User: What shape does this take?
Amino acid sequence: MILSDTTQLIQSLKDREPESFALLYATYGGKIYEVAYRMTGSQAEAEDITQETFLQVYRKVDDFRGQSQLYTWMYAIAKNLCYRHFQRAKKSSFASFEALLDSGAEIGPSSAIKAWEKQELVRQIKEGCLTGLVRCLAFPQRMAFILHILLHLPVRNVAEILDKSEAATKVLIHRARKNLRNFLCKNCSVYEPVNPCHCEDLLGFSLKQGWIERLASEKRNLPDVEQIEEEIKSVREVVELYTQLSVPHPPQNFNRRIQQFIVEQEGVIFASKKV
Assistant: This one.
């Protein structure tokens, strides 16, 4: 049996002490929701799956024997719920996602979008694009990639959650990286500069679909500290894109691409003037 500082919490859960479930949710609620949201791409579905996960924990906690970590057991419950959602939902594919991007780009950018808000809208598109790509992966690859690469769980824990060997789990992670990398090399200008960038072309289409939201006019002049945080976050996401998907090493011109991305930011923290 695995003994840890959660032993007392587990016993409190089995004793049905109300405060124990509040503590459990405060500790793991956000993590379970993040898994569910990344898997489904829907806030409503993620909220439902998170709620059902904790309901099942409440109902089944007496069956928990401590043969795994508590969070591993909870992730496994959330995984099964996500899998049921995946079976009900229409399966996405890289081909269908590429067709969707192409059809959206044909509409072109909206002339009503102001220059000052374009950067934020493009950021939303890139974030949504990553979510869409991850959803194109086969379910086992998707789970392995999200749990290990995006949520930084060790391979041994991911293997236990997926009920697979560590070797099989590493294969799933490798294949997920390869599939995502192949798509990005073919379609994304951030990962492969020879590709045309369609992010701005997708602004009008994405707004029409309700996938992104325009900023309120009063948010135009954001405090420098908030803008700096957003700029650093943007660069970090690009760096992680290369380091997560490149096997075994980032491209040879990795440094130049990051440098070019920083130059194109035209922001506050990366500007030549003092802030």
Residues 94-220 form a domain with the Arc Repressor Mutant, subunit A fold (CATH 1.10.10.10). The CA atoms of residues 253 and 259 lie 10 Å apart. The radius of gyration is 21 Å. The chain has three domains: 7-88, 94-220, 222-275.
